[in-house]
Amino acid sequence: MERIPILKIGNLLLVSIQVDLQDRTVITLEEDLAEKIVATGARGVVIDITALDIVDSFTGRMLATIASISRVLDAETVVVGMRPAVAITLVELGLSLEGIKTALDVERGMRLLSARA
Amino acid sequence: MERIPILKIGNLLLVSIQVDLQDRTVITLEEDLAEKIVATGARGVVIDITALDIVDSFTGRMLATIASISRVLDAETVVVGMRPAVAITLVELGLSLEGIKTALDVERGMRLLSARA
């Protein structure tokens, strides 16, 4: 089974999603991330979706769930690397990712989180 | 076609390999990376292979090629996240990744590169 790696950089965690997301992969990611936040005491999570050509409602829900899990564990989530076409599709789907912070790229996302920490 | 994202963090580039590597993917990655090193003036490249269960001679060669390309563009490469089993297989295959620096995780890899910059 595919497992999405979670990289620790300073007091942030970086998740770069590059594979097609299946139910099982998403559940594993959520569990792994929750554990890693607790184990490392990370204050922020950067989710990079540069590699995703398509973001459907399933992915949108996953991003919202991850943000909520992080929030209750006292970490903030920023989604970075969204393509223009993905942004348009999301809004057309009625998914405006409310409550989820976004940044153009990993660097800006990390800066945003560091500024708040 | 799959394209492996290259993330810029400070003056380093981070490549997290999570997909099965095909010839085309590797060539694209090498081209993208060379362009990005020049465009950003990055001094180091961190290649994360946490997600790889198997590293064969093809992958070994790719890591060596990427390290060489980076070197001629004045950037240093560190391979991080190698699993114990992968290390054993590599050595059994006679691939000891000579000339390629390694570190246990992304954080140590970034620290190693920053220390040299």
Automatic annotation (TrEMBL), chains A, B:
Residues 2-113 form the STAS domain. Transmembrane segments: none annotated. InterPro entries: Bact_StressResp_Reg (IPR051932), STAS_dom (IPR002645), STAS_dom_sf (IPR036513). PROSITE patterns: STAS. It holds the Pfam family STAS. PANTHER family: RSBT ANTAGONIST PROTEIN RSBS (PTHR33745:SF1), RSBT ANTAGONIST PROTEIN RSBS-RELATED (PTHR33745). This is Anti-sigma factor antagonist. The gene is rsbS.
